[in-house]
C-alpha cells in the first residue's frame, strides 16, 4: 500500500518513528469530522528535525464554508515568529488560544492549538483549529479588549497610512509596505535610512522596491505568502520577513520586516572565538601537566633514591587529579561550559589511585545519593585534590598487604550544604597525624571551599567529612529523592 502524504512528510522532515506516525494518522482520519463540527479549518503540524521550524503534515476544511487558505498548505514550513501558539504548545505541552493569529497568507483567524502525545507522553505534533474572523468580529474583539482610547490607539498603530505611525517610528527594524506592483508605499524612518544607504538615492517614494534593492528580488519571487530569509550583503547580516496581505482592503500588498543582525552575529563570532581560546587554554594546561608528569616519571627511572619514590608518586597523583578536571572539561560537548560533574570527577580520580595500588584488594564504592553535582573548574581542582589525598591515605595506611578492604565515597546534600564522606573499614587511627597531605586538605577546604574538615570517631576504620556551602559555583540537581540528606 502506498504511503500517505503525512507518512512521507514525517519520514523526510521529522524524527518520528512508525508508532508515532500511526498515532498522527489516526488523528488525521478524524480531521474532516472535527472541521465540519466546528466549522473551522483543522491542521496537524510537526517539528522538523534539522531546524527550529515546523511543517504542516495534514489539513481538513469544513464542507459548509470556504477555506481560510486559498490553496493547500500541506508541506508548508511554519515559522515561530508568525505562529507562536504552535511552538508554545510544543514546548509547554499545554493548549494555546490566540484570538487574533496571522495565517500563512496574512488572514486574521482565531487559533486554538493542542499538543498530540504518544504513549510515553512525548509531544509528537500539534492539532490546530483556525476560524477566520470577520471585520465585525475584529471590531467587537478590539472593543472587548480596550474600554477607551480607540482613536488614539488607531493613530499610534498607524491605521492612516498617510501618516507615519508612532509605533513603527520607534521600531529598530526596517518596516516597508509595497503595493501589488512592488512599488514602495510606506517606509518607517529606519526603513528610509536603510533604502537610501543601500540604493544611494533619495528618490524612493512610490518607486519599485526590487529596482531600488535588487537583492530583494528572490524574496518577492518566492510564491510563499509568508517567507523568512537570512541574507549576508555588504558585510551586513539581515533577516528578511515577508508577509503578503490578502483582504478586501489590501490587494496584493506586501509587508517586509528587515532586521539588521550584523552586531549580533559579530558578538556571536566573538563569543565563539572566546570559547575556542578558552578551550585552547584548557588543552595547553592539560598538556603541560602531562609533560610535568612525564618528567617526574623519567626522574624516578633515572636512579632516584628508593626512599624518595613515594614522594614522587604522591606528586604524580596530585598532578593526575588536576589533569582529570581538564579532561572532563574538554570532553564536554558545550565549548562554553567549564562546569565539572563532581561525581564523574571522583570516579576518575579514585580509579587512577586504585589502579596504582594493584597489589591491594580494595573495593571502591562511590555513592551520589541521587545527586548530580556541578561546580566551576576552580572549585573542581580543589575537590579533586582533596579526594586524592584522603583516598590515598586510606590506600596507604588503612589496609596492610593481603587484607581485603573497602573505601566508600558518599555525597550528602541539602539546600545549603554539600557533604563529602570518605570512610574505610581498615585498621583505623587513634589520632590523625600531621602530614603534607592533611595540610593540603585543610587549606583547600577552609580557603577555597569556605568549609570544614574533620575526622569522625568510628569503631572500625576511619571516617573523614568535608562540608562546604552550596553557592553559585556549586549547583546540585536531585535525580531522585535524596533519602540520605
TrEMBL record:
GO biological process: phosphorelay signal transduction system
Naturally occurring in which organism (per UniProt): Paenisporosarcina antarctica
Lineage: Bacteria, Bacillati, Bacillota, Bacilli, Bacillales
Catalytic activity, reaction form: ATP + protein L-histidine = ADP + protein N-phospho-L-histidine
Swiss-Prot/TrEMBL keywords: ATP-binding, Kinase, Nucleotide-binding, Phosphoprotein, Transferase, Two-component regulatory system
Family annotation (SUPFAM superfamilies): ATPase domain of HSP90 chaperone/DNA topoisomerase II/histidine kinase
One GO molecular-function entry: ATP binding
PANTHER family in the record: ETHYLENE RESPONSE SENSOR PROTEIN, TWO-COMPONENT SYSTEM SENSOR PROTEIN
Class of enzymatic activity (EC top level): transferase
Pfam name, any one: GAF_PdtaS
SMART domains hit by this protein: HATPase_c
Catalytic activity, EC: 2.7.13.3
Domain named Histidine kinase: residues: 280-472
Record-linked PROSITE patterns: HIS_KIN
Keyword check for rRNA processing: no
Protein name, entry field: histidine kinase
Keyword Flavoprotein: no
Source organism superkingdom: Bacteria
Amino acid at each position: 500500500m502506498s504511503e500517505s502524504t503525512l507518512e512521507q512528510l514525517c519520514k523526510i522532515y521529522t524524527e518520528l518513528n512508525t508508532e508515532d506516525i500511526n498515532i498522527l494518522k489516526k488523528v488525521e482520519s478524524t480531521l474532516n469530522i472535527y472541521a465540519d463540527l466546528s466549522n473551522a479549518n483543522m491542521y496537524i503540524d510537526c517539528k522538523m528535525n534539522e531546524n527550529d521550524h515546523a511543517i504542516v503534515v495534514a489539513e481538513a476544511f469544513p464542507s459548509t464554508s470556504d477555506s481560510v487558505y486559498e490553496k493547500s498548505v500541506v508541506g508548508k514550513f511554519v515559522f515561530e515568529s508568525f505562529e507562536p501558539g504552535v511552538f508554545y504548545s510544543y514546548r509547554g505541552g499545554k493548549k494555546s488560544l490566540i484570538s487574533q493569529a496571522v495565517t500563512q497568507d496574512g488572514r486574521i483567524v482565531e487559533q486554538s492549538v493542542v499538543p498530540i502525545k504518544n504513549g510515553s507522553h512525548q509531544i509528537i505534533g500539534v492539532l490546530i483549529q483556525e476560524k477566520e474572523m470577520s471585520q465585525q468580529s475584529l471590531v467587537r474583539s478590539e472593543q472587548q479588549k480596550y474600554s477607551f482610547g480607540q482613536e488614539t490607539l488607531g493613530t499610534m498603530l498607524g491605521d492612516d497610512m498617510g501618516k507615519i505611525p508612532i509605533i513603527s517610528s520607534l521600531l529598530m527594524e526596517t518596516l516597508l509596505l509595497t503595493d501589488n506592483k512592488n512599488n514602495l508605499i510606506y517606509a518607517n524612518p529606519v526603513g528610509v535610512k536603510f533604502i537610501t544607504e543601500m540604493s544611494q538615492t533619495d528618490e524612493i517614494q512610490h518607486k519599485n522596491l526590487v529596482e531600488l534593492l535588487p537583492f530583494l528580488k528572490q524574496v518577492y519571487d518566492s510564491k510563499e505568502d509568508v517567507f523568512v530569509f537570512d541574507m549576508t550583503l555588504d558585510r551586513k547580516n539581515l533577516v528578511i520577513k515577508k508577509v503578503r496581505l490578502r483582504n478586501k482592503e489590501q490587494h496584493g500588498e506586501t509587508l517586509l520586516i528587515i532586521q539588521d543582525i550584523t552586531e549580533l552575529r559579530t558578538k556571536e563570532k566573538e563569543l565563539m572565538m572566546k570559547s575556542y581560546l578558552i578551550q585552547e587554554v584548557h588543552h595547553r594546561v592539560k598538556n603541560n601537566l602531562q609533560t610535568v608528569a612525564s618528567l617526574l616519571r623519567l626522574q624516578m627511572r633515572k636512579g632516584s633514591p628508593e626512599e624518595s619514590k613515594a614522594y614522587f608518586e604522591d606528586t604524580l597523583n596530585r598532578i593526575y587529579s588536576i589533569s582529570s578536571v581538564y579532561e572532563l572539561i574538554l570532553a564536554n560537548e558545550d565549548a562554553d561550559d567549564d562546569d565539572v560533574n563532581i561525581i564523574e570527577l571522583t570516579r576518575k580520580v579514585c580509579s587512577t589511585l586504585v589502579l596504582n595500588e594493584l597489589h591491594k584488594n580494595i573495593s571502591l564504592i562511590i555513592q551520589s545519593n541521587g545527586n548530580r553535582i556541578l561546580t566551576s573548574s576552580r572549585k573542581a581542582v580543589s575537590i579533586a585534590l582533596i579526594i586524592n589525598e584522603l583516598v590515598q591515605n586510606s590506600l596507604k595506611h588503612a589496609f596492610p598487604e593481603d587484607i581485603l578492604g573497602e573505601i566508600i565515597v558518599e555525597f550528602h546534600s541539602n539546600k545549603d550544604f554539600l557533604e563529602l564522606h570518605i570512610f574505610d573499614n581498615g585498621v583505623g587511627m587513634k589520632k590523625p597525624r600531621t602530614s603534607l597531605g592533611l595540610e593540603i586538605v585543610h587549606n583547600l577546604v577552609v580557603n577555597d571551599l569556605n568549609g570544614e574538615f574533620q575526622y569522625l570517631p568510628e569503631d572500625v576504620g576511619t571516617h573523614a567529612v568535608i562540608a562546604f556551602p552550596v553557592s553559585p559555583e556549586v549547583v546540585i540537581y536531585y535525580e531522585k529523592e535524596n533519602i540520605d540528606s
